[in-house]
Amino acid sequence: MMAVISLYYRYLERMTGAGRGEIIQRLPMFGSDIERVEEDHVDVEFFPSRPDLFSVEGVARAMRGFLGLETGLPEYRVTPSGISFSIDPGLACIRPYLGTAVIRGISLDEEAILSLMGLQEALHWALGRGRSKVAIGIHDLDRVTPPFRYIAEERTRTFIPLDYDREMTMEEILEEHPKGRAYADIVKNFPRFPLIVDARDQVLSFPPIINGELTRVTGESRNLLLDTTGTDERAVMTAVNILCTALADAGGRIESVDVSGSHIPTLAPSTRLVSCAECNSLLGVDFTPEELSLLLEKMRFSAEPAGGDKVRVGVPCFRADIMHDWDIFEDAAIAYGYEHFRTEIPPTFTIGRAHPVITIASAVRSLGSGLGYQEVIPFTLTSERVMYGKMQRPVNPATLCVLHPITEENTMVRTGILPLLIETLQFNRHRELPQRLFAVGDVVAGLATFQKAAFVSLHPAADFSEAYAVADALCRELSIPYGTEGSEDPAFIEGRRGDLMKNGRVVGTFGEIHPAVLNAFELEHPVAAVELDLTAVPGYPSGLGTP
Predict the structure, then answer these.
(1) Overall pTM > 0.85
(2) pLDDT for res 1
(3) How far is C-alpha 246 from the geometric centre of its chain's CA atoms?
(4) pLDDT tens-digit profile of 387-406?
(5) Share of the chain above pLDDT 70, in %
(6) What is the 3-state secondary structure (H, E, C) of 216-276?
(7) Residue 433 has pLDDT above 70, yes or no
(8) What is the pLDDT of residue 49?
(9) Crossing angle of helices 56-66/233-249, nearest 10°?
(10) How far is CA 114 from CA 5, 118, 131, 219, in A?
(11) SS3 of residue 515 by DSSP
(12) 26-34 mean pLDDT
């Protein structure tokens, strides 16, 4: 999934120094996709790997280089603010990391505020995984008194949350405030809640849920305090760097804060030594180190020949996506211009045909659409809690687990598709009914990759008959010779569930989802469901493995 950012012309032109026509024409060559062009703004889709482009300021900075208006590494001066922030050791097992900064002398008009709000929400999605990994707060500094404390507070602590006019306990906020209900799962199981307070014990923020009304940012705010909290230190600091550089480009002065002895942020670039020969080999070009340096400066790096075929590259602090030399070479290709690469016929001539697995999956997609279901594409990584716990199913001993998962939501490779469809229904439970979804794709058991398909139907009249009708249609149209038997699958209601059998083997399950499973996924209506192992389809390649 990619981020769609609204870029308002007047602010974009002012920040870039170029006309909207030239910007819109060149944006697609920068690795972005224009979704729609409106009267006052353009909506542009960017890859989630480039969160520095999730604001007008970030896009303008990049476009100034790409258009040759301002090249090289942007310099950001950081001075000490004299303000300190302490972190309560009790947060170590709750939400341990804090990033912060002071921004002074900022003047935000309506379009700048919209850009800042859009950046904040986009970072919550791309870096923050829905605020669970990183959450951001921006405050009017002039309304509070430093030093500040980040503490683990009693759940009964009260303050006035943003957009309210009365004090509420933090537990009440989780139950009654829209933001509290949306993000309660992140903190509700902790004995204490994270809280940011000032020297007078006034509440700035209850991360990752809601800011206090006290520090609301308006068009009159001139001095800001940024806080980013989370469970991943690198992601937290990346968010700080992106926000601070965007606010500096908008006219703010960045000041560092003493956080337990460390001064945050520094906004200092990192340095890499790359090979021009390796770049040429990868891209099929013939750049000299001097030419490669000029191209990289268009992409807002600093670059200079460093002897032989080497180029010394300064990587700006907001480029969190630069993890390998090849990431830098990709930027060189963008600066060179994809339109300048020669198109050539490959020296090896081959004739391709569809793999049988792809043919079977395409047939399932046609059937799903014909039955009135909408296709979705769930993530391949999931968690034991979704795949087994909420489904009341025992853990599959052939589960392939992630050795070093970065989040609790991505600890294993999916062994089935049905739980992820029900999770999708949960995400869309406030949408209109009926909802009929299907998905087809890879699953992994042990080291074997094969394919499954699943169908779910959510509405007040969903029942066993609907599930059986879909299962029968699938098997009939896919030419699967099948029989049915009673099922023991605990994800379904006893007496309203069945197994699809082929040659004595269970190849699918259908029926009504169990009420306990519905409750676990916060669903209020019945769900009829089918899951089918596509290795049962005649013509499926023998032997399991990645096609």
Answers:
(1) no
(2) 52
(3) 20
(4) 999 999 999 998 888 887 77
(5) 99
(6) CCCCCCCCEEEEEEECCHHHHHHHHHHHHHHHHHCCCEEEEEEECCEEECCCCCEEEEEEH
(7) yes
(8) 84
(9) 70
(10) 11, 6, 19, 11
(11) helix
(12) 87
User: C-alpha angle with apex 457: 452 to 461, nearest 5 degrees?
Assistant: 150
Average pLDDT of the chain is 92
Sign of the alpha-carbon dihedral angle for 360, 364, 365, 367: positive
Angle at which helices 276-283 and 325-336 cross, to 10°: 60
pLDDT by residue (tens digit) across 226-247?
A: 999 999 999 999 999 999 999 9
Residue carrying structure tokens 């989780």: 174
Structure tokens at 383: 């968690």
Q: Are strands 148-153 and 78-87 parallel, antiparallel or unpaired?
A: parallel
Collect all residues with Cβ–Cβ distance below 8 Å to 472 and sequence separation of at least 6.
none
What tokens does 317 get?
A: 């602090």
Cβ neighbors of 455 (< 8 A, separation 6 or more) are 368, 371, 373, 421, 436, 437, 438, 470, 474, 529, 530, 531
Using DSSP's 3-state secondary structure scheme, residue 158 falls into strand
**Rounded distance, CA 103 to CA 251, Å?**
9
Distance of CA 89 to the CA centre of its chain: 29
- CA count, 13 A, side-chain hemisphere, 457: 22
**pLDDT for position 454:** 95
